[in-house]
Design brief:
- The protein has 688 residues and is α/β, with parallel strands linked by helices.
- Helix content is 39%, strand content 10%.
- The chain is built from 22 helices and 16 strands.
- It has an 8-stranded parallel β-barrel with strand order 7-8-9-10-11-12-13-14. The chain has a 6-stranded mixed sheet with strand order 2-1-3-5-4-6. Strands 15-16 form a two-stranded antiparallel ribbon.
- α8 crosses α9.
- The chain is globular.
- The chain binds beta-D-glucopyranuronic acid.
- Beta-D-glucopyranuronic acid binds next to loops.
- Keywords: Carbohydrate metabolism, Glycosidase, Hydrolase, Polysaccharide degradation, Xylan degradation.
- It is an enzyme of class 3 (hydrolase).
- Its EC number is 3.2.1.139.
Length: 688
């Protein structure tokens, strides 16, 4: 009987090990003899003195027996030597140095968090078969996740369950998951987390909640992670019962100052505030005739004595049916360049509209010379198929970061701008809207974990490539077999373009379902705001399709440096993947490959569906080579993705055909349903 119980327990543990909970930290056994020969003799012991190194040591003790099958003993002269050394010659306080000698590997850093990063670097090197020596520093100061979590446990645009934070249990009970969350982030170098939705409830600033926030901050602190809060600009009125929240009124300023003092008395290393003001109905300084500068600087002054930061979002756009939302952030913020206090960062979404599957870079990045800007990426797949579509986002992040902005009329990547190299920023930041939730595997789609991973790695080093990041992630998560690894890597690298092909080819944008942002609804012509419809963006008519943003149209291109916008300005030279972002393209315009636009456009949707079928076939080939539960989970989601890719194809082809009035290209089978039938699918999905 006892034996059976053991076997049952063993089986349960096996199943557990495959459910994705451990992310890229399952530390499965290394088989490669070369790696074992290099590391085993040098990791027989751990040597450290500093008490602050406990979490680093704990990670080593957890990982090394699993990876190498040895249990390092404590102390001695050789082995893994971990040292905090304030005098070490590294300029970056979060950096670290790794050196290797005959019997030892030494990790030294000016601060304990650097040693922790060094330990995670070492574990990554072991799992990717690399040697660890070198000096390493993050290229970005603030490496941040933004959680759009509400206090009732829901997550705005979250597709992996409920919020990780259990407000009703805090501060007394600390879910063990909080610590695993911190470990996962620290393993990537993420050092900041905004724990609540940008559409912020004022309640998070109440004394009742602040003790709960403190409890989380205490768990995250040993992992080098600072807590930030999204704040509701009207809090002095809502919580403080003041008549209003006018940032120029002394009593409002006093309220914020006292609130900041209260927060810092509980959380001495509190990071600061993230603010969505005067955007999509949120309150802000403009409610009182004041400006973004007035609002941001007032908060900055309250935080300044404590070393806190304000992240003020540039995602602000007035509803103007005649305008072009593309231009809004620039128009709102460019006039204020140079007027923000020195602890304010303006947080800008990667593109000018809103996290579309492919966007040109936001022109603001090229225009604010005197104000540090933070990059806001979206990791949760709001517009990229939620948790049923496999999209490896690092390809998109990389495309954006490597964009040559032509600032100063020379090669200047967006990555360099973010690193502060171009305009000499005093602060640098990359943030990602998190895709985590209470699902056992954290991200819903098992491959979504790679997007969290990639955001963290790119925030540390925005010059890394999607390809190498995929390889790292795969060998720590799915397989270390090189053939399996490279097969999965090629799949991952193809996924973003596949998604673009069946949803938004040639720069088509904002044609998704209204409100919920899932599935195709290119026919949406009415919404609470004109710039939430699809028609506003695609402008399809009998002549063609696309938004003319050249000087014959909205002239949004004028917001970029001339040298950047020049190729985009003409139909002849505009990169084809951006055509509909900048031009109203005639249906019968000839493209480079000889097809007329209509045909090329339709073919992309069909190609996308075929490519999903290809993904399905390729995924079948890794059966038995990756954890079974992950295999099955991804297979099932690919089936849904396939079904939904056909949905997208049928909807877009049939709908736009009503404008082009042209036949499908030869050889393509017409959709099996009518446009009216496709439109009804929304009801089947019961999303609204
Ligand atoms: C949009 C989302 C909305 C967010 C908003 C934002 O649809 O839920 O509140 O962005 O970033 O993409 O503030």
């Amino acid at each position: 009987m006892k034996r059976y119980l053991f076997i049952l327990l063993f089986l349960c543990l096996q199943v557990r090990a495959e459910d994705g909970y451990k992310l890229w930290m399952s530390y499965s056994k290394i088989e490669d003899p070369k790696t074992l020969n290099f590391y085993k003799p040098r990791l027989q012991a751990i040597v450290w003195e500093d008490k602050d190194l406990e979490v680093a040591v704990e990670e080593v003790k957890l990982a090394i027996p699993k990876l190498l099958g040895i249990t390092p003993k404590k102390g001695g002269k050789n082995g893994l030597i971990l040292k905090v050394n304030p005098h070490i010659n590294i300029t970056n306080p979060e950096g670290y140095k790794v050196s290797v000698s005959g019997q030892s590997i030494t990790i030294e850093a000016p601060r304990s968090v650097g040693v922790l990063y060094g330990v995670f670097h070492l574990l990554r090197c072991i799992q990717t078969g690399q040697e660890p020596a070198g000096e390493f520093s993050p290229k970005i100061q603030h490496r941040m996740l933004n959680h759009w979590d509400n206090n009732n446990g829901t997550i705005e645009r979250g597709y992996a369950g409920m919020s990780l934070w259990k407000w009703y249990e805090l501060p007394e009970r600390l879910d063990p998951r909080y610590k695993d969350y911190a470990r996962a982030n620290a393993s990537l170098g993420i050092n900041a987390t905004v724990i609540n939705n940008v559409n912020a409830s004022a309640r998070f600033l109440s004394s009742e909640y602040l003790v709960k926030v403190k409890a989380l901050a205490d768990v995250f602190r040993p992992y080098g992670i600072k807590v930030y809060l999204s704040v509701n600009f009207a809090s002095p009125r809502i919580l403080g019962k003041l008549p209003d929240a006018d940032p120029l009124k002394p009593e409002v300023q006093k309220w914020w100052k006292e609130k900041a003092d209260e927060i810092y008395s509980l959380i001495p290393d509190f990071g600061g505030f993230l603010v969505k003001a005067n955007s999509e109905g949120e309150p802000g300084p403009m409610d009182y005739g004041r400006t973004h500068v007035d609002g941001a600087n007032m908060l900055a002054k309250a935080l300044k004595p404590h070393g806190g930061m304000v992240f003020w979002r540039a995602f602000v756009y007035a509803p103007d049916p005649k305008g072009d939302r593309f231009k809004a952030a620039y128009e709102e913020f460019k006039p204020y360049d140079g007027q923000f206090d020195d602890n304010v960062i303006i947080q800008v979404k990667n593109g000018p509209i809103d996290f579309m599957p492919r966007e040109p870079i936001s022109p603001l990045f090229t225009a604010m010379e005197k104000t540090p800007l933070a990059m806001e990426f979206q990791v949760t797949q709001e517009y990229l198929g939620w948790a049923t579509h496999w999209v490896y986002l690092a390809s998109m992040f990389e495309e954006c970061l490597k964009t040559d902005t032509r600032v100063k009329n020379r090669k200047t990547t967006l990555s360099e701008i973010l690193q502060g190299k171009t305009f000499g920023y005093r602060h640098t930041a990359i943030t990602g809207v998190a895709n985590t939730g209470s699902d056992r595997n954290w991200t819903g789609h098992p491959m979504g974990q790679a997007n969290w991973y990639a955001l963290g790695r790119l925030a540390w080093d925005p010059d890394l490539g999607a390809k190498e990041i995929a390889q790292e992630w795969i060998s720590q998560t799915l397989s270390r077999d090189s053939k399996t690894g490279s097969d999965i890597q090629s799949m991952m690298l193809s996924t973003r373009e596949i998604y673009v092909n069946y949803t938004s080819p040639f720069g088509l944008h904002h044609v998704m379902g209204e409100g919920h942002h899932f599935g195709p609804e290119p026919w949406v012509e009415k919404a609470p705001r004109p710039d939430w419809t699809a028609l506003y963006y695609h402008k399809a008519d009998e002549k063609g399709i696309g938004f003319d943003r050249t000087n014959t149209g909205s002239n949004a291109l004028a917001q970029y440096p001339k040298e950047f916008s020049a190729p985009f300005s003409s139909l002849e030279t505009c990169p084809e993947e951006f055509l509909l972002w900048f031009h109203h393209v005639p249906w019968d315009r000839k493209l480079k490959n000889g097809d007329i636009f209509w045909e090329a456009f339709v073919k992309k949707f069909y190609q996308g569906v075929k490519e999903v079928e290809g993904l399905q076939r390729d995924w079948e080939k890794v059966k038995g080579k990756v954890p079974q539960e992950t295999f099955e989970n991804v297979s099932a989601r690919l089936k849904t993705q396939h079904k939904e890719a056909i949905w997208w194809r049928d909807a877009c082809v049939l709908y736009f055909q009503t404008f082009s009035k042209k036949a499908l290209p030869a050889g393509l089978k017409a959709p099996e349903r009518t446009l009216e039938e496709v439109k009804k699918i929304v009801d089947v999905y019961h999303i609204r």
